[in-house]
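Notebook p. 47: complex prediction with 1PR.
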Amino acid sequence: MITLLDYGAGNVRSVMNAVQRLGGTLTRVTKPEDILNAEKLIFPGVGNYESMIRILNQKKYIEPLREYLFADRPFFGICLGMQALFQGSEEDFSGNESLGFFKGRVARFKTNLAVPHMGWNGINIKQDSPLLKEIDPGSRFYFVHSYHIVPEDPSVVLATTTYDYEFASAVQKGNVMGTQFHPEKSGRVGMQLLKNFIRSEALHAAGPVEIRGKGLAKRVIACLDVRSNDDGDLVVTKGDQYDVRDKGGVRNLGRPVALAKRYYEEGADEITFLNITGFRDFPLKDMPMLKVLEETSKNVFVPLTIGGGIRDYTDSCGQVYTALDVASRYFRSGADKISIGSDAVEVAMAYLATGTKTGTSAIEQISRVYGNQAVVISIDPKRVWVDSPDSAKDHHVVQSSDSGPEGQAYCWYQCTVQGGRQVRDLDAVALARACESLGAGEILLNCIDKDGTNSGFDLELINAVRNAVSIPVIASSGAGCEAHFSQVFERTGAEAALAAGIFHRQEVPLQRVKAHLAQRGIPVRQE
Ligand code: 1PR
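Predicted complex, structure tokens below:
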């Protein structure tokens, strides 16, 4: 029997699904005594350290957890669940009491690389542990974090990972262990690791080893634009420059749950669902999207992002729902990240106009509770052609390799809301910067002019945004062949590339994209 310590934040459904898939039975901690009654305890944590420690204190879990840990009973902490084992974090200014099982603290990444460290990275193994049994040392695991542990005692380090510099990415002392990466989101290798924890009788490590692993991979993401068609069925659709209708009807390219499963099996590094008409309705009334996430997370063990309609909302009875309420429902249904489109534009404009962070915007609220890494900003820009940079002095103008309808060589990228239906006087670069400052952890950078054209990514746009922020950027819109993916990784700093149409229509399978990238020497995960 596995006991899950669920303190109320983040996506614990994936861990539950993974344990159940592995044949484990599961119970949850609902009161402090449940901790000491556990046979094996898993503590999955996502989000913000301060908020986690505060809740553990409020629920009176700290003392029983300490007793459990110091009695050397089987414990596996994931991400924040591992960080909680240390004496404190730079992310926590509250002075709340931490577990202090391991000596050392949690520090923010100090690097010029994008933070959060997000994606599939390798591990350098330092202990011969049953936890890593039957795992190919060249495997990569899914990481998503801005802070990492700094253990004082090197002998407790089970693995390290390199992101600019080497940091401890897994620890083990006796039966107490933890990983910074998410095994429940790391496909087959992650499932093997969880299986090792769940099934092994003896977990103690046999001694030190030194095995080097691989580095961070570029991510290839499959995106599913979802909406109801005219018969009311929820379908995956795909537009050309955001127009999803063919002869009047909404294009139907498949069922969301089945397609997501296919992409997982084909090796997608992440899957993104965009509820493209979410701006119209209140998303919590749109229960099918919650169901899609619940069903998908039973079979798909890579990160899931959901976007569409994430904003504050007052229903017809006057009941107020915050964007945080909406996001929480998505996280509990199996999402790892939420993506905000239209609302981010309005919030950023208000912030830029006043220079004041209200603390109440969707971006701020959600990142405070779930961490920056859980908040993606989906940008839907359109090109505005101009004759020279001086023609749009208030906007970030780029020189384009395309030319405008009247031969213009320059353009700026105007933000839109409601899936391109309305424009705002804000450019994509300013939006990305403002959202980063408000607490966003990643940018999903679409381009309406390129969407569905198969003509390649907009490299100028991607470079402009990538150079303006220090959070990861997902290049999106326009992929038509394998070479477009190598182009985007060789000619921009994008951390990930996303495509929809070519995958849905099976024109270019995911494996072919990965094989092409590997052949060009671009690091990719190939399981
Ligand atoms: O504004 O917070 O409610 O979120 C709505 C979300 O829905 C936004 O993320 C927005 O990008 C998305 N969206 C709205 N309308 C459309 C549409 O297509 N009519 N889809 C839409 C956006 C763009 C990409 C697409 C890539 C790759 N889709 O996600 O998948 O362009 O396509 P390709 O590889 O085929 O070129 P809110």
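Notes: Residues 223, 225, 238-239, 242, 244, 274, 276, 278-279, 307-310, 339-343, 378, 380, 419, 446, 451-452, 476-479, 499-501 surround 1PR (CB under 6 Å). The CA atoms of residues 253 and 505 lie 7 Å apart.
Next step: compare against the earlier run before touching the bench.
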